[in-house]
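To the wet lab folks,

You asked to see what we're planning to order before we commit. Fair enough. Below is the target structure as tokens, and below that is the sequence we designed to fit it. If anything looks off to you, flag it before the synthesis order goes out.
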């Protein structure tokens, strides 16, 4: 097993069976995490990129069975932040907090037309920041329009590469279309961010092996891995949810196979354990996304309960993140944090 980890660290390649064997064996976890940490240091260094996350609307036309924002959840108060306020949040993040990337995230909210979004993108780009969007499935033309307006990256998780499971958990959605959308991001000139949930009912070790191979095949620039956390107002409320250990293993193996990409220590990891993000940063992650949404909105952007950033102001979120980074002996990276050297 240790030989396999070494091979992955040197050749950045494992086949499905090898991935499954490593995912199944928990005795190798410590070595796996340490090796992913070394590969991270070798390829992307000790700097941690901070991306300021603005959750600008919790309206969603979709009905993903795992998500608290699903359209059939009538227990949440829906909100949209107006364009000027979104810009002000971005300005605070860029000018006062010195963040070099802004991430605009929302449910699939048709209120924000391509025209409105492009106007907002242009305004935010005047702040000299990189801009990431995470707003769901759109046409190739829309992705192109966002790129032309100045957007740099886009996050669209495949959620799971098991087609049947995807259809079960994402009713009304289409797996092939999702893959097309992810490919279209790259064709439109945007950096491709994707990823999966870990711990959805029905996911197996084999599924995670396929997920990791998919990331490589799609030539991803960023991969976000989130443990699934059941939400009480969704059909999956009684599911047991994902474990931090499996999420970290999938993430560490992703670092070994795609050594120079950007990998966030996700909020869902921190929600499962108080030091979840620190553990992730020591097992291959090199990005954190401090939440810069106003406190009054955050409690309504509840994808899952106990989201660790709820209740903090943007400045408090940043302070907490910086403390974690300093305690690790790492530093906040300068620059926009693009994924440059594709191998
Ligand atoms: N609506 C866009 C989309 O789905 O791509 C962007 C926002 S969506 C809330 C961002 C991510 O939240 C999803 O890709 C999904 O993986 C994650 N998410 C949703 N429900 C979750 C849950 N219960 N536990 C953990 N992560 C969850
Ligand atoms: Fe909507 Fe995204 Fe939640 Fe699915 S995961 S319900 S698309 S916000």
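Sequence we intend to order:
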């Amino acid at each position: 097993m240790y030989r396999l980890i070494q091979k992955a660290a040197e050749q950045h390649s494992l086949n499905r069976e090898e991935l499954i064997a490593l995912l199944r064996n928990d005795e190798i976890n410590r070595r796996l995490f340490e090796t992913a940490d070394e590969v991270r240091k070798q390829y992307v260094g000790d700097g941690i990129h901070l991306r300021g996350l603005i959750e600008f609307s919790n309206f969603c036309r979709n009905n993903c069975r795992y998500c608290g924002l699903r359209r059939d959840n009538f227990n949440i108060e829906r909100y949209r932040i107006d364009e000027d306020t979104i810009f002000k949040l971005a300005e605070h993040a860029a000018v006062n907090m010195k963040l070099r990337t802004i991430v605009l995230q929302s449910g699939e909210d048709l209120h924000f037309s391509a025209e409105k979004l492009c106007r907002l993108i242009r305004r935010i780009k005047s702040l000299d920041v990189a801009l990431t969007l995470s707003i769901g499935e759109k046409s190739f033309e829309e992705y192109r329009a966002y790129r032309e307006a100045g957007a740099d990256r886009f996050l669209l998780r495949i959620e799971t590469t098991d087609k049947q499971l995807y259809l079960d958990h994402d009713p009304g959605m289409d797996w092939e279309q999702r893959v097309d959308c992810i490919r279209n991001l790259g064709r439109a000139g945007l950096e491709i961010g994707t990823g999966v949930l870990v711990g959805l009912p029905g996911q197996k070790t084999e599924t995670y092996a396929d997920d990791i191979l998919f990331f490589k095949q799609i030539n991803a620039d960023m991969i976000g891995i989130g443990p699934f956390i059941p939400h009480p107002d969704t059909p999956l409320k009684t599911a047991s949810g994902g474990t931090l250990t499996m999420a970290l293993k999938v993430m560490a193996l992703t670092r070994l196979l795609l050594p120079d990409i950007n990998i966030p220590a996700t909020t869902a990891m921190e929600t499962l354990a108080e030091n979840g993000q620190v553990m992730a940063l020591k097992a291959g992650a090199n990005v954190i996304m401090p939440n810069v949404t106003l406190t009054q909105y955050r409690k309504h952007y509840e994808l899952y309960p106990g989201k660790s950033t709820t209740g903090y102001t943007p400045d408090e979120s940043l302070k907490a993140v910086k403390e974690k980074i300093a305690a690790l002996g790492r530093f906040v990276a300068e620059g926009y944090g693009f994924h440059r050297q594709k191998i």
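Structural context that might help your review: The beta strands are 47-57, 101-106, 130-134, 153-155, 191-198, 222-227, 287-288, 331-332. Residues 66-67, 69, 105, 107-108, 134, 136, 156-157, 159, 197, 226, 228-229, 231, 268, 303-304 surround S-adenosylmethionine (ligand 1) (CB under 6 Å).

Thanks,
Computational group
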